[in-house]
Recover the amino acids of this structure.
């Protein structure tokens, strides 16, 4: 036996060894920092609780500066590096399985271009009021999506793990959080629900939002923000689509976050402008359904030619309506240079 494996065997439990060896097989012969072990599937009722005395640190798409985004390894690494929550985008396959993937197309972050057997799947669809051409997740079954391998979105990021990991399902994502050695929350987004509901149909007339919520309920996620029940399995539900958030309000008491895009982007479902959804009257309306807003960072501190300008009053306005503020898609980093951070729900 290799001396390194022998040392690992002597130190870890047999279950942990199995996890380590399985992950070794997944990453092949690549050399790099050791990964967080695969989920153990063993219950641990004595986990260190979520720390609430400070803002939460959320790993946006996992530890994506080091490992390709929204993969199991990226989320495991983020947990190892100290994230309080792991964040993901939920989309659907052709056959109705919920997956963790950011773009509605596969082009930017998978090896789809290398799969000649799928060359005829390229389509042009309308997405958020504009035509988009590419290979869409909704045109592939889960089995076909699992045959693809994920790669880094940007060339300046570490490329050594390209092609090592597959797309994961929502349930696999949840299992990673639940099997962490301490309490780790989840922060899933109902991604592009207008598009998904148009192209994917579920039995009994169910919608994408229903499927999303049923998955959370299946794994025991419930409870209002900071309640005893919520603290056991913390979760926030986020979406750029206000109608999705209002639709699920009576189905779950989990806290919800209304995401707000850049000033030029209209809401995908209600076609409202930035000015409309950040008005006092609208914030007064949406607070009945959400605990906070998640504005694009440039709407908090505008940037001009790489220079920060005077902050806007959006945070103060939100707080005046008793709404918390998180900062999604941030480019800040903590714990390790690879974790993309969102500072969430600090007391105002």
């Amino acid at each position: 036996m290799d001396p390194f494996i022998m040392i690992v065997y002597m130190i870890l439990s047999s279950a942990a060894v199995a996890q380590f060896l399985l992950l070794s097989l997944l990453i092949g012969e690549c050399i790099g920092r050791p990964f967080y072990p695969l989920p153990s599937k063993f219950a641990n009722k004595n986990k260190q609780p979520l720390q609430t005395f400070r803002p939460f640190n959320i790993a946006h798409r996992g530890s994506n500066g080091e490992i390709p985004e929204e993969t199991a390894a990226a989320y495991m690494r983020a947990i190892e590096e100290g994230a309080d929550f792991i964040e993901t985008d939920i989309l659907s396959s052709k056959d109705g399985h919920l997956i963790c993937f950011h773009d509605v197309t596969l082009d930017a972050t998978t090896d789809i271009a290398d799969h000649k057997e799928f060359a005829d799947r390229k389509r042009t669809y309308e997405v958020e009021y504009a035509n988009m051409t590419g290979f869409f997740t909704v045109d592939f079954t889960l089995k076909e999506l699992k045959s693809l391998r994920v790669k880094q979105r940007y060339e300046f990021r570490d490329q050594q793990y390209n092609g090592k990991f597959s797309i994961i399902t929502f349930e696999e994502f949840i299992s990673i959080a639940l099997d962490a050695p301490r309490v780790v929350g989840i922060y899933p987004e109902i991604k592009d629900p207008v598009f998904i509901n148009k192209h994917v149909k579920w039995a009994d007339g169910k919608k994408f939002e229903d499927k999303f919520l049923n998955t959370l309920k299946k794994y025991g996620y419930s409870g209002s923000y900071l309640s005893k029940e919520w603290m056991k399995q913390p979760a926030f539900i986020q979406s750029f689509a206000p109608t999705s958030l209002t639709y699920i309000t009576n189905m779950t008491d989990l806290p919800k976050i209304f995401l707000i895009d850049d000033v030029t982007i209209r809401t995908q479902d209600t076609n409202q402008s930035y000015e409309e959804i950040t008005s006092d009257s609208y914030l007064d309306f949406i607070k009945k359904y959400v605990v906070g807003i998640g504005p694009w960072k440039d709407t908090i501190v505008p940037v001009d030619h790489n220079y920060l300008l005077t902050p806007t009053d959006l945070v103060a306005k939100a707080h005046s309506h008793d709404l918390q503020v998180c900062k999604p898609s941030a480019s800040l980093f903590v714990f390790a240079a690879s974790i993309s951070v969102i500072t969430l729900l600090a007391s105002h």
